[in-house]
């Protein structure tokens, strides 16, 4: 499993594409947080990273599918999946190795964003204690879990096709539907006052926003891990059919 993850990481960072992807992620968020009018913290007037945590899911919807689209699609296209099948690894180890590589890249991309916290802390009115550390910690945990779900979705979509572009488009579409879809459906008049709350609970956005408030509810944690397991299990089933 570790060997699979190392191979994926080597391929990702063996070209400028990997570094450019991470730099773009950091640059887009930095511009939104410190430069663009009406979204930067100077216009907002409060020491908060809310704008970053509101934008990050949108960036992840396209960034993570770009990371995971080649996981299995390239293996199918090049024919190396046949060789991979003969290795002394179970399907679960192969799937989790590919998935782990995406998670490592996500962590690498998130680590530099700690500079945002340090910068805003230094710009706050008193210089110490200006940021709600509980909410920030909860938001980072929620963002990591959200990214982990998107990574599982991207891995599954890549196992459906040998075309990386199709895998990317399918991954982004699935992430959008699961993140925003249930919330949008719950607002339909037919569900208002009846099943709207329960429908909204099925969406990723509901649980991400819950954790971002700084409260770690076991129901939210179970939800994220359940969705991750479902998509990784579906990926393993797809490989068994190949």
Descriptive notes:
The chain is mainly alpha-helical and 242 residues long. The chain has one domain (2-241). The protein has 13 helices and no strands. Helix 9 (133-158) runs parallel beside helix 13. The model has no long low-confidence stretch (mean pLDDT 84).
Give Rg in angstroms.
Answer: 19 Å
Count of domain modules: 1
Helix content: over 70%
Global mean pLDDT: 84
Which class do the helix and strand fractions yield?
mainly alpha
**Tertiary shape:** globular
How far apart the termini lie comes to 19 Å
Number of helices: 13
Portion in beta strands: under 5%
Total strands:
0
Please mark out the parts with pLDDT under 50 across 5 or more consecutive residues, or reply none: none
Oligomerization category of the chains in this entry: single chain
Largest sheet: none
Order of helices and strands: HHHHHHHHHHHHH
């Amino acid at each position: 499993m570790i060997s699979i993850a190392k191979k994926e990481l080597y391929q990702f960072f063996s070209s400028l594409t990997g570094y450019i992807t991470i730099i773009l992620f950091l640059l887009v968020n930095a511009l939104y947080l410190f430069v663009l009018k009406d979204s930067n913290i100077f216009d907002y007037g409060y020491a908060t990273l809310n704008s970053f945590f509101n934008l990050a899911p949108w960036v992840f919807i396209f960034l993570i599918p770009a990371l995971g689209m080649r996981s299995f699609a390239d293996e199918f296209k090049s024919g190396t999946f046949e060789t991979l099948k003969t290795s002394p690894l179970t399907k679960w180890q192969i799937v989790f190795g590919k998935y782990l590589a995406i998670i490592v890249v996500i962590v690498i991309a998130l680590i530099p964003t700690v500079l945002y916290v340090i910068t805003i802390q230094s710009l706050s009115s008193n210089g110490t204690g200006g940021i709600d550390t509980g909410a920030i910690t909860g938001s980072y945990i929620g963002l990591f879990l959200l990214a982990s779900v998107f990574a599982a979705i991207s891995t599954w979509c890549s196992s459906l096709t040998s075309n990386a572009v199709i895998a990317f488009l399918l991954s982004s579409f699935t992430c959008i539907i699961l993140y925003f879809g249930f919330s949008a459906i719950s607002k339909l008049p037919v569900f208002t006052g009846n099943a709207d709350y329960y429908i909204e609970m099925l969406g990723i956005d509901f649980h991400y926003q819950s954790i971002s408030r700084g409260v770690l509810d076991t129901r939210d944690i179970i939800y994220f891990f359940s969705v991750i397991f479902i998509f990784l299990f579906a990926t393993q089933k797809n490989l068994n059919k190949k």
